[in-house]
Each structure stands twice: as C-alpha cells, then as structure tokens.
Design goal:
This protein is an alpha/beta fold. Helix content is 37%, strand content 13%. β7, α6 and β8 form a beta-alpha-beta unit.
Length: 282
C-alpha cells in the first residue's frame, strides 16, 4: 500500500503532524475541521502495550486504517507490535509503514527505553533492525528510546548515511524529563538529515505539567536556534496527552502557527508546520 499526501485546496496554511494515536483511540482528529489547511499530512501510529503483538494489534489497526481510508502515513510505536521480528518488519514496510519506534515505554528485545532499562542500548537484533530499516526506507524513530539506544541509532545512521527522527519529543534543556532530548541529541538528528517533532503534552513542555501556547513556541524556538531545518510537529493527539489550553484539537493549531509566525517569521513557521517533515519523508 503506497502512502499518500492529502491535499485540501482551501487555505494557505499547511500542516504535517508526525505522530498521533488516533488509530487506537478515536478522538480529537476525528472531529477536526481539516478543510482549513491547504495541505494536511498525518502520521498515524499503530500502538499497543507490551502484551500486544503482530496479529493481536498491528493487523487490526492496519485494517482500521484501510477501512477508514485515512489519508496520510503509517508508523509503528514499539517493535513489540511486530514481535521484534525482521520478517514482520519487511511485511510492515510492504503495507506502507514509514516510521518505526523501536520501543514504546516498555523495554523489548531491541533496546531499553527512557522509562524502563534506560541504560541499555541496542542489542545485536536492534542493530539488525536499524540496518533493515535503512534498506527498506523506513525511518527509525527514537522517541521513547533510552539515551544509550539513541546514540547507538545515531552511530548506525552515520555508518549507513541515512536520517533518523524523533517524531514526538521536546527540549530537555527547557523541561527536564526522560522523554525529552538534550541539545546534543537534537543536533545529532539534525546532522543526519532527520527531524524532531515537538510534542503537545504539557508534562513534556513545562515543569509542573501546566503549559501554554507560549511554552510550545519556546520549545520550537530552542530547536530552531540549534538547526532551522530539523524541527516540526508531532502532536501526540489521542495519545492520552494533556495539551496546553487552546491547543486541544487539530484546527486549534492555527493559534500556534500565529504565535510562531510572530516570534520566528513566516518562513520558519512554514518550515516547522510542514516543509521540514515533508522534505525528510518525501
């Protein structure tokens, strides 16, 4: 199944969101008034906890995606959904999966995570997965991965000369939590040609878990200062997040664009909202 972009010829604002969990939870994206965007591309993550696998979770969510005729791209959030199987990775790529988180919060055969076994990096199988992803043109997504695993992915990326990404992670310098990225990690993603998508969960945006539109803009601008070509959006809508007030749905992202345009200018706002992700995924 070939991935495709959804072009809606109405307004001039374009949106590329690199992560949502809508396939597992019908919610904020189902009611979004998408017609306000001149172009709108959504990456839908297939997700399930550690007890779910290829037949129990991946296949049913894939069928849901097909039946809904969802415009956009597919991702897998956690290789346990593929039973950590290279053969299943090949099948997933054939079905149109273009991003793969090696882990969710649970450690698996490939690596530890930011939440579980955080000092464990890629196993030998994890390195084989990274090489196979490069062969299949599937982007390795390091959101949720352990820091040790991150640097192992970065090393494989350098060796194979392929980009890697973080679909929904924020700046650790601004909000010190395990899910966020250090400046050095962000720069490594940028150097590979990849992109980091800023997450709208308030707990990853501000200490105390209460965030505003200004906090999102601050995280974006922190990354822009490090590299203008490597930051985008990865909202994590329908993933159980608590978004900042005023950014609860896709259509409300217009407010974020307006705030970012005032702070960084139209060109960089457009890059964050669409162009950076479109470059790496097209």
């Amino acid at each position: 199944m070939l991935w495709r972009l959804n072009f809606v010829q109405k307004n001039t604002l374009k949106l590329f969101d690199a992560h949502c969990d809508t396939l597992s939870k019908d919610g904020k994206l189902q009611t979004a008034r998408r017609g306000q965007f001149a172009a709108y591309t959504q990456v839908y993550a297939i997700w399930g906890d550690r007890h779910c696998g290829y037949k129990n979770r991946f296949i049913p969510q894939l069928e849901k995606y097909r039946n809904a005729g969802s415009p956009g791209l597919l991702a897998v959030e956690g290789a346990h959904l593929l039973d950590c199987s290279l053969a299943n990775l090949e099948l997933a790529a054939e079905e149109g999966v273009r991003l793969l988180n090696f882990t969710w919060n649970n450690a698996n055969l490939l690596s530890g995570t930011c939440a579980e076994e955080p000092f464990r990096g890629l196993s030998e199988l994890g390195r084989k997965f990274a090489a196979k992803c490069a062969e299949l043109r599937v982007l390795v997504d390091v959101s949720h991965l352990s820091e040790a695993g991150f640097w192992d992915v970065a090393a494989v990326s350098r060796m194979l000369n392929v980009p890697f990404v973080a679909s929904h992670s924020n700046s650790k310098a601004l909000c010190d939590c395990p899910r966020n990225l250090t400046d050095s990690q962000y720069k490594a993603i940028a150097k590979s040609g990849g992109v980091t998508g800023v997450n709208l969960h308030s707990g990853f945006l501000a200490a105390g878990g209460t965030a505003s539109v200004a906090d999102v803009t601050t995280h974006i601008c922190r990354f822009l200062e490090l590299d203008e070509n490597a930051v985008g959006l990865g909202t994590d809508f329908d993933g159980g997040i608590t978004p900042p007030e005023g950014l609860e749905t896709v259509e409300s992202l217009v407010r974020l664009y307006e705030a970012l345009e005032k702070t960084a200018g139209e060109k960089l706002a457009d890059a964050v909202f669409y162009d950076n992700w479109a470059r790496v995924l097209q």
